[in-house]
Specification:
single chain, alpha/beta, Heat Shock Protein 90, 4 domains, 6-stranded mixed sheet, 5-stranded mixed sheet, 20 helices, 13 strands, 65% helix, elongated
Length: 662
């Protein structure tokens, strides 16, 4: 039995689905059965008819049918089933034709019916071996079988061994053809229906088994959960009994403590009220002292500035020839001390201004130009020290507070010069780049370096110094940190003693540089646009003469501070302005603005395209042009900004071409 099973299940490991496994097993069984039956038929045929070509061919047909098993074992599971379906009809038809060629002179009716019934039986093989879903193979093998069955007579006629002979009755044979075809239809219909029902039920069974397995898995998980919960509940029940006993003991203790706390709470309540009163009084005094300290700092920095400036002026006016030789050294000390005091007052003023948040407006800054300007201030020290300067400018422009930016660069570069190493040629490398959030400036030198392990905590504190062979007050790095933080950034340092020091400044990118409000009231808004390098004013409704003059005076102050070459004025809702106020603006404000760098005015008027006021606007432009200022009128803020941006680009290209020519 094991041998038979091994033959029937040959090639099973090459299959993927249940249908394929069943088809392979059945094809193996058919091949083995046909081999066995061919041997049986060989014996009986020999007994009845003796030796002949047909007798010898019968076992060879069985061996060919057994080839299915060998194909499956080799992994050709589709080819083996097609072989099983086609080998019997093809070989039997060929054998029939060949045998009738030999014995045509003495035919018998059985010779024509026997082979045909075998072919009819083999036509059922495709419906047994293939699934309904293997349509191509099923239809191919079924169609091949029925064509051989229908073409049985034409093939015999083709080889000259047809049924029609004097010794045979054709009418009986023709009727047998009808019976055979009807039998084929009944056989195939029954097998097709059986196959369809079987496979449909099989799919349902697979689904039900899968559902049952899922249900079993869920039940197993739930049972495990229930068992775990049961164990946990039991443990909790035991713990609960212990806790209840402990709670009872704790409750008694709580009651005792509660009574004690009530007594203590009464005494603490009165004490707390007294402490709160003292704290409020202390906080009030602290605020008062803080305000007095700020006022004192402001007073000291501003009130001392005048006397110190006068003292320096008097010292410079003093003729050296009038000073006795023995007093000249004292005078030099007085001059040096006065200059140091002046610098300290200026630094103190900067600190106060920063803490009062005076600097808010971001301007467009040319990084390389700012670096060059800084080095021009300390040009003498750079030449004397033989310092090499390396600039790596990846980000050409940044938007920040220009005075603070200048101060940061000056203090970091000045530090690098002060603390250079005498053992090697000094090199200062300055670079700029940016990321999504910050502009990044870096100043690196090959000087003395800083012992960060010892001094990192005190590096940016006020009046802290780490090298004493040069002059210094310990204010530079403190100011740098204060200004960088005021700009929403931070500073880092990396250093190695006697090798290098690198300061990296991160300046936060401003969110809105196009509409930075300088002054805002109900009647007017003054703004600064860093992208266009322009101040501007937007009027809101009819205004009085005093408000008109006050707003333009403030605008002029901002033009002086930021030296903006461009100005935008939105006159859409300005209302009526008296002739006297207009003349005041043309004679007082515009000439002064021109002297402070104003060269371009973009005015927004909804009626700018009106032909009725075209001549008036043209005459106004001509009058302003005499002051060196070009004025144009536009219908919208977008058009005005576009014109200014275009003019700025023209100037930038002109300056760049002039620089390349130099």
């Amino acid at each position: 039995m094991k041998f038979i099973y091994s033959i029937i299940f040959s090639g099973q490991h090459f299959t993927k689905t249940l249908t394929e496994r069943r088809g392979v097993a059945i094809s193996n069984a058919i091949g083995m059965s046909l081999l066995f039956l061919s041997l049986v038929l060989f014996v009986f045929y020999y007994i009845w008819y003796g030796w002949s070509i047909v007798t010898i061919a019968i076992p060879f047909v069985g061996l060919l049918a057994f080839g299915t098993v060998l194909l499956n074992r080799a992994g050709h599971i589709y080819s083996s089933r097609i072989w099983t379906c086609l080998i019997i009809p093809v070989i039997i038809t060929a054998l029939s034709i060949y045998s009738k060629t030999i014995y045509y002179s003495t035919p018998e009716e059985l010779d024509y019916f026997t082979f045909r019934f075998i072919i009819l039986g083999s036509c059922s093989f495709p419906w047994v071996l293939f699934s309904i879903y293997e349509r191509k193979s099923l239809l191919f093998c079924s169609l091949a079988g029925v064509l051989i069955l229908i073409g049985y007579d034409p093939l015999h006629e083709l080889f000259g061994v047809g049924y029609s002979q004097d010794t045979l009755k054709a009418s009986t044979y023709y009727f047998a053809n009808v019976v055979i075809f009807i039998s084929y239809c009944l056989l195939v219909s029954a097998l097709a229906f059986l196959k369809w029902m079987s496979e449909r039920n099989e799919i349902k069974n697979i689904e039900l088994i899968a559902e049952l397995n899922n249900t079993n898995e869920v039940l197993t998980e739930k049972n495990a959960e229930i068992e775990a919960q049961s164990s946990e509940l039991q443990a909790q029940s035991e713990a609960l009994e212990v806790n209840q006993k402990q709670l009872m003991n704790a409750y008694r203790m709580i009651e005792e403590h509660k009574n004690r706390l009530l007594t203590q709470n009464e005494s603490l309540t009165s004490e707390l009220l007294e402490k709160n009163k003292d704290l409020t009084q202390t906080n009030t005094e602290l605020i008062k002292h803080n305000n007095e300290l700020r006022q004192f700092s402001y007073t000291v920095s501003h009130n001392l500035r005048g006397p110190v400036a006068s003292l320096l002026g008097l010292i410079h006016l003093l003729e050296p020839t009038l000073v006795k030789p023995e007093d000249s050294e004292i005078l030099d000390h007085i001059r040096t001390s006065s200059e140091r005091l002046d610098v300290i007052i200026k630094d103190l003023t900067k600190i106060i201004d920063i803490r009062h948040d005076i600097f808010k407006i971001r301007q467009k800054i040319d990084v390389e130009e700012e670096i060059d300007e800084t080095f021009s201030i300390i040009q003498k020290e750079v030449k004397q020290s033989g310092i090499s300067i390396i600039k790596n400018i990846e980000t050409e422009y940044i938007y920040s507070v220009k005075p603070m930016m200048h101060s940061v660069l000056y203090n970091l570069i000045n530090n690098a010069i002060k603390y250079r190493s005498a053992e090697r040629s000094p090199v200062i490398e300055i670079s700029s780049r940016e990321n999504n959030q910050y502009y990044i400036l870096q100043v690196q030198d090959n000087g003395l370096g800083i012992d960060l392990k010892r001094n990192k905590e005190n590096l940016f504190k006020l009046y802290k110094r780490f090298h004493f062979h040069t002059e210094g007050k310990g204010l530079g790095l403190y100011l740098v940190k204060l200004q960088v933080e005021a700009l929403g950034g931070y500073i880092t340092v990396d250093s190695e003693i006697n090798r290098y020091t690198t300061f990296t400044v991160y300046l936060k990118k401003p969110e809105d540089i196009q509409r930075q409000v300088l002054f805002k009231e109900r009647h007017a808004e003054i703004f600064f646009d860093a992208h266009l390098n322009s101040t501007g004013i937007i009027w809101n409704g009819p205004i009085t003469s005093d408000l008109y003059r006050s707003a333009f005076s403030k605008t002029l102050d901002f033009v002086k501070i930021y030296n903006t070459p461009n100005f935008i004025t939105d006159l859409s809702r300005q209302g009526h302005i008296d002739k006297e106020d207009q003349l005041w603006m043309f004679h007082e404000i515009i000439p002064e603005a021109a002297r402070n760098g104003l060269i371009r005015i973009a005015a927004i008027r909804p009626d700018a395209a009106d032909d009725h006021i075209h001549d008036y606007l043209r005459s106004m432009n001509e009058s302003i042009l005499k002051l060196g200022i070009e004025q144009r009128f536009f219908l919208s803020m977008k058009e005005a900004a576009g014109w200014i941006e275009s003019e700025n680009e023209k100037i930038a290209l002109k300056l760049k071409s002039n620089g390349n020519a130099d």
